């Protein structure tokens, strides 16, 4: 049995090259005039015999060196046991071979990857036997059977094994066992049922395995491909920015490192993002996780891609030492005002709000803000906003409500200043359009006519959270001077989150609520800025500034990293009319062609959704519109695959067998363990032949 049999055929072909080269380069006779041949003939005969012996020895040495090198590359495995003993009578056997192809099988011990140890063993399990049917399950995030059921075409199974490779995915054990159970259950009565599993039996993946899904009479053979109970490894588990990444500002990035070894490690990580390279260093204790952090200068605006990489370390699984990054670097927030009031109308609610935003410096009024007429809004201009401030909009149309709801789901945040009865109706429609994702803490309603002129006070606020946490010890004195007239009343909702209420008025109505929904936020400020004294106090500017910078402009942290092999859905901030213009680009810069990795672009009520059934190999995937990225995601090795600790064999027999017959074979007892070093001796033989050739040439030197 050979791990790489193709090398033998190449070696046999190459072994003829020394003879061919010798024949093509043999000396040609040269005609010379001489006086007599008496002495020349004897000398020629003597030298001819000597050179012929030399040529034969050199050719043998060269041919043997080529053949030995070919056999060393082929990796022969000798004297292996057959799953069914040779002296047993042929039986009607139905066998399913389950080969673990998850990322952890790429780990190396003794200089050999676990998967390369498993491959020849699995090949031996599907070698020809009379009256046997078999099938092969390549298991990772989802099981991939070679055939729909057991077959006698064992040659095709061996070919599939030769072509199989490790996948950068997590092993989902139970779906593989379920599929194996279905195949075995469909076999005819009287057949001997066998399930042979080759894996490293990671504790994180196999602890929840349920073998009761297999037929009761099934013979389960678990064969581990490594004898080491604890394989040391160092891995990057996660890389993420702390909130919104904005041009011209440093952003806090954190890198989570796991040390799955018995010794502490001093670790250095280099984070590259666009043109920026930033080092992180820290101490990671043994058998622990640690978070390294630092403020990274942000490159230019737009989508930036890069990676975080552990440097200067040599561990068992180098694949998880690198993690791709995709993050959007935002310009200064674009703020839009959705209102029916005229711009620069002194002492109006919109006027107070705009002047407060301008005073905070969060957004430049001239460059980064838009004034949109709520009666007939410019939808494209509205969609280009990062934050929308809604004040005295009148009754919003259903179309405008739908656009606002879709924007919130895509990551835009709204600040609704609730002033008059129409605002209560608008908020109710907006909550309905957002659906179940928006768990509003209260329902707003108009003030009754007899209470419209009464004064209310701010009696309770959440001091630990923004925006009120920014006031510190001066908060109590600042709140005493506030008086409110107008606005709305509210009543709590049973399924709402009480912690979303940041401030409460004296009549128990909500003053400020902030609700996260989708990737954006909806904040409601229940105040009439014209009738209350809030706009005439120094509180309004820092209040609005904190709301926009800390809550609304940062939005929800968007997940931009997905584990390989797993499904995901990403909502794109692109109108559905441009769906045909989008391009999906993979890590190599070329368009994605694999249907599973490419997925589909579908128009939904909240925008275009990129739905992918199986995230591709590690790297960055981009969505382009007119050759410019509008979204990007990074795929990475699942973090669970970095923990290489094995589950003990007795756990399978005592807890997980499900009453089935189960045998566990450790790596030390697998028959090819001692034979897998034969290639080393063959390589040494190659070197011996090459040295022998040099020695022969030196002896026969003239």
UniProtKB/TrEMBL annotation:
It comes from the Bacteria. InterPro entries: Aerotolerance_reg_N, Double_TM_dom, VWF_A. Residues 1-76 form the Aerotolerance regulator N-terminal domain. The keyword Translocase does not apply. Residues 96-201 form the VWFA domain. The chain crosses the membrane at residues 6-25, 56-74, 678-700. The keyword Ubl conjugation does not apply. Keywords: Membrane, Transmembrane, Transmembrane helix. This is Aerotolerance regulator N-terminal domain-containing protein.
